Amino acid sequence: MTECSDNSQSPITISLCMIVKNEEQTIERCLRSVEGITDEIVIVDTGSSDKTKEIVGKFTDKIYDFEWINDFAAARNYAFSQATQEYILWLDADDVFLPEDQANFSKLKSTLSRNFDVVSMLYNLGFDQYGKVTFQRRRNRLVKREKNFQWLGAVHEYLEVYGNSLNSAIAVTHQPLSHDSDRNLRIYEQRLQKGEKFSPRDLYYFANELLDHRLFNRAIEYYQQFLATKQGWVEDNISACSKLADCFYNLNDTENQLKYIYMSFRFSVPRAEFCCRLGFYHLNNNQLDQAIFWYRLATQADKPADSWGMVNYACQTWLPHLQLCVCYSRAGQIRLAFEHNEIAGTFLPEDSRIQHNRAYLQNLLGTGETIPESKS
């Protein structure tokens, strides 16, 4: 939905609501990135033993304690209950708004129609060595307080929303320094020991935690349970197929790795990521025709518009072209190899691999000329 504004109205007011614990390394960076945007900052501390509260005190006196009960949704709902402004923004302590997004958010604040109940923003989760976003998804970030939207889920909680929504181009950037990598897994294991029945969403996120800890066989078990419910969100179904393929790749089980790559096609047309996976498999087996087929398909695959699932930009941009350069070079089709290397270079102009390929392929072609963009 496009933005609708009424220039005669006053800007909306915003409460930033956060839950924190031992965030002295990141919290100031986060709060400085919202200066001039938020009208109120509400911080709920779940048991810090460092200087988090002292640092937060520079920005707000609305600091509340919340006894940690292994329930992120409960803590976030408590934080939301302390807000007093028209809209609520939520962030984690290792999130920031970069300058461009700060400016865009300020503009949104001054123009947003109060008809909107929810504003979603992009979430930048991964970057390459050149600072370009490689992984991104979308999250509901700004919500109307009077709607009393609630967080659900003890771990990997989500905000249940409805009503008139706006998908903005503003991005929140995740810049973690460190975190308790075992925390979420411990919570899931405790819930499991209590005999709690997991929802499909719980099964999926528990499997993610197991995969992150390289517990591949257990991760496989819970991803398969998740898919067997046939109740998962389509993007989580596709992601589960990708992660199952990762598990079986790490277990050197090629048959099942391929099984789950192909299973992803049940939920959507072939995504670029899965085409690249198949291209990589065939390239490693020196099946150049099949590898070229899948990498070419990756370059042509539709890019989901405003996807709420994880987007792998490498597979949608430079990676299949760089791999096609390899394939065509091995096949002796040097001009096509050069052309695809140059296309990859439009995305990563400073990349040493592309520069090396360019010099090598120009030498084979016996010319220093610049070859026009590929029509292949």
Would you kindly provide a written description of the structure presented here, covering whatever features stand out?
This protein is α/β, with parallel strands linked by helices. The chain has 3 domains: 14-174, Spore Coat Polysaccharide Biosynthesis Protein SpsA, Chain A; 180-268, Alpha Horseshoe (Serine Threonine Protein Phosphatase 5, Tetratricopeptide repeat); 272-376, Tetratricopeptide repeat domain (Serine Threonine Protein Phosphatase 5, Tetratricopeptide repeat). The chain is 45% helix and 16% strand. The chain contains 15 helices and 11 strands. It has helices at 27-32, 52-56, 72-81, 99-111, 183-193, 200-212, 216-229, 234-250, 254-263, 272-284, 288-300, 313-316, 318-330, 334-347, 352-365, and strands at 14-20, 40-45, 63-65, 87-90, 95-96, 118-127, 133-144, 150-152, 158-160, 165-174, 311-312. Strands 1, 2, 3, 4, 5, 6, 7, 10 and 11 form a 9-stranded mixed beta sheet that branches. A two-stranded antiparallel ribbon has the order 8-9. It starts with 13 loop residues before the first strand and ends in an 11-residue tail after the last helix.
